[in-house]
Amino acid sequence: MSEMKQIKNLKEFSTSADRFEGASLLCPGCAHSIIVREVLNATNDDLILSASTGCLEVCTAVYPYTSWDASWIHIGFENGSTAVAGAETMYKVLKKKGRLKQPDRNPKFVSFAGDGASYDIGFQWISGCMERGHNMMHIVLDNEVYANTGGQRSSSTPIGSSATTSPQGRVSYGEKRNKKDMVAIMAAHGIPYAAQVSPNKWRDMVKKIQHGFAVEGPVFINAVSPCTTEWKFDPKDTMHLADLATDTLVFPLYEIIDGHELNITYRPKNVIPVEEYLAAQGRFKHLFKDEYKYLIKEWQDRVDEKWAHLQRREEARI
Amino acid sequence: MAFDKMELKDVEVWDGNYAAAQALRQAQVDVVAAYPITPSTPIVEGYAKFTADGYVEGEFVMVESEHAAMSACIGAAAAGGRVATATSSQGYALMVETLYQASGMRLPIVLNVVNRALAAPLNVNGDHSDMYLGRDSGWIQLDAFSPQEAYDLNLIAFKVCEDHEIRLPCMVHQDGFMTSHTAQGVNTLSDDAAYGFVGEYKPMNDMLDFEHPVTHGVQTEEDWHFEHKARQHNDLMTKVIPKIQAAFNDFEKLSGRKYNIVERYDMDDADVCVVCMGTSVETAREVALEMRAKGIKAGVVGLRVIRPFPFFEIAEALRGVKSIAVLDRSSPNGAAGMLFNEIAGALYNADTKALLSGYIYGLGGRDLTKKHLVDLFNELQANADAGKVTTKLQQFIGVRGPKLAYL
Amino acid sequence: MAKKGWDEFEIGAMLRTFDGKIDDIAGTRQEDRAYSQNSSYTASVSDWRLIKPVFNKDYCIDCQFCWVYCPDVSIISRDKKLVGVDMDHCKGCGICVEVCPTNPKSLLMFPEQAEEETVIANWPKKDEEEA
Are the CB atoms for C99 and C65 separated by under 8 Å? Predict the structure, then answer.
């Protein structure tokens, strides 16, 4: 085993030599690449990466350019996780057979995918990877929408959000379903580590990624990725939105070890009302009409209930 | 090496599935990722058991769908090692998206396709619907007519597709049940001889070479896509058949068994002939001999290589024949049969006056009997005597109900 | 990159990030890496930008918030010090300015055409209200 990279503080983190390059085609202010950088910079070990079809994939490997400094593969929308699982299996075999070209390395296997590619079309593939115990990490870049195809709802899209296939209109407030709890579903596979992260909390992110790299077996990470284009906010405000996401507890930060030991990893000193999170985004603008204000109240209640639920689980160690 | 060799008898009694599994073992495949489907399942079960018994040092990954099976095979192949799997029918159909990705990324993977019909209605038996579904997917497609050939062609497939001048995935087809589950005598190679023939896997553009990172599976739009597809097509059109021929030659030296791009049986002086694939070739060969005893100069042509399509070899094989029947074992659903069309294309500008007629047969495992073939050869002779096709161009063999004939 | 014919590139649309061998990527700085012409590092998105960040080192405390939150690997930090902005890869999103905690900020957005020397000479003073 290689030694874990020591990152005591942000200054020390900033000595990392990035393995993700600029001039990708991601939108200005996109959180995807902020998350990718924090993940990749959490280790100095070699990396074998994949991306499922989506914003990250189509913007970082458009021929004749690649933004990746580590080996990277994309197959399709649903199977980026399985691509990495295949590579990880081959690694095990070649190691066993003594055929690795650089046998002293300790590569980390990571698949990135959006919420559409993870919650929806790639759900079965990810479940398979988690169940089979591959030594890999799947990271969802969760922007709660099919951003790459122009803003259709996914099963991660939250209630009241206006997406192109669940639009708000004269008689509709937009998406009617609550987002599915992917972290809980993946943790229920009994995997050694599942966690929710946010790019604004870089230290929490790095700690969790390093934990994920250190354990043997499959790891699932859900990363909130504020989307300037589809959430409809100014590109400069990406980190502000991430702050609102974590500090309103809309995206609580926690981890689940071995499928049962839940730890809350961030408790905001001042919890911000959910209304401020909703108000900062164009996708929820219509909720502030008089007839839909009850939904804001329901939002707050739902977030409070989830937070209470997490705290109860943490206390009960289940 | 941390695995044991197997002592094989010179001739073993194997069905096509077990013959293919033995070939995967002897090729020392590194990773098999698979999902079960009748009738191909015993191939991957065989590899799993060889792994469990320590006769091969690889990893068997039982995934959750055929799509995931090929996805994992792609990841494993891109990582840099020998990869194989097997499937049939609906599983093959589910895999189709990834078939194009495997070939477009130029990853050598051997896929055993145990041919089976496609639903609806559901059917587990052999026809060539799945084989036809993949014909534009950019894979090499080899066709075995018997368990012996399933064994031999698997070894040949690795040698061809992993060659750095080729780097294209390869399917080895055999007929569901008729080949896959019918035990016959199979002449074996020793483990050392077989592995020596296939050779060590030589990685290329491998993701696990940490000193040379690679990006696989890029996006190319209108400014690049056409060139990449053209490159792949060019390599299929110009490089693959010579490489297969070279592998056939090497294999003949090793085993004494001779394969040809297009197999010809009793074709030297044939007036009439049947062109077909799979187990039907063997039935047709037997009937052709019987027709010769009755004075009809009958021959049989079998396609050993389906893709790339042996355009010139097939025209050469059919030179001088007066009347040809092309047998398609897949419903064309609104067209002439694929094989009929391919052969018509190959003959159109060739120096031939041959009469061409097409037959749809054997769907869902329906038997092609010797009686069917006797009638067929007689019909071909009648065409030859009349100097024209005396029937419709497309007929059906062995289906109940009013006679079907089109075109 | 010049458009090539179908016979002029590697099979499988495969791209290599580096020319030749690289031994320890995570231990090698960008300026010491032999990027191939296929690495997006060699490309520029500067024409995406309408406004640009200008860095004023006089106020910088090297907290590295701008470095960690830059989506485009465009904040250049070396030896824990902020060195400058990579103007080939900066898309002008303005996140670096938003996350800058100093007063006045050590990064501010200006029109693309603004002269760096001029804007630094006229840098805003400490904002008492914000402090």
Answer: yes
- Number of residues that make up chain B: 407
Helix B16-26 vs helix B191-198: angle between axes, to the nearest 10 degrees? Answer: 70
Q: Where are the beta strands (DSSP E) in B105-203?
A: 109-115, 140-143, 170-175, 184-187
Q: What is the CATH number of domain C45-112?
A: 3.30.70.20
Nearest CA in chain A to C23: A102
The encoded tokens of residue B281 equal 């070739």
**What number is the ipTM of this complex?**
0.97
The interface residues of chain B toward chain C in range 104-143, judged by CB-CB distance below 8 A, are 104-107
Q: Cis (ω within 30 of 0) for the bond into B39?
A: yes
Contacts of C34 in chain A (CB under 8 A): none
Domain with CATH 3.30.70.20 in chain C: 45-112
Name the residue among C6, C10, C22 with its Cβ closest to that of B230: C6
Q: How far is C9 from chain B (nearest CA, A)?
A: 9
Domains, chain B, ordered by start: 11-200+221-255 (3.40.50.970), 262-406 (3.40.50.920)
**Architecture of domain A29-316 in this structure:** 3-Layer(aba) Sandwich (3.40)
| Token pair listed for B160 | 């061809």
The predicted-structure confidence for B345-376, as pLDDT tens digits, reads as follows: 999 999 999 999 999 999 999 999 999 999 99
Q: Do B210 and A105 touch (CB under 8 A)?
A: yes
Beta strands in chain A (DSSP E): 47-51, 71-73, 108-114, 137-142, 168-169, 172-173, 193-197, 219-224, 254-257, 261-264
- Taking the domains of chain A in order of start, what are their residue ranges? 29-316
Give residue-wise pLDDT tens across range C14-26: 999 999 999 999 9
Q: Which of C67, C72, C94 sits opposite A33 (nearest CB)?
A: C72
Measured over all CA atoms, what is the biggest interatomic distance in chain B, rounded to whole angstroms? 70
Please enumerate in sequence order all residues whose Cβ is within 8 A of that of B80, keeping only pairs 6 or more positions apart, or say none: A90, A94, B201, B203, B204, B206, B207, B208, B209
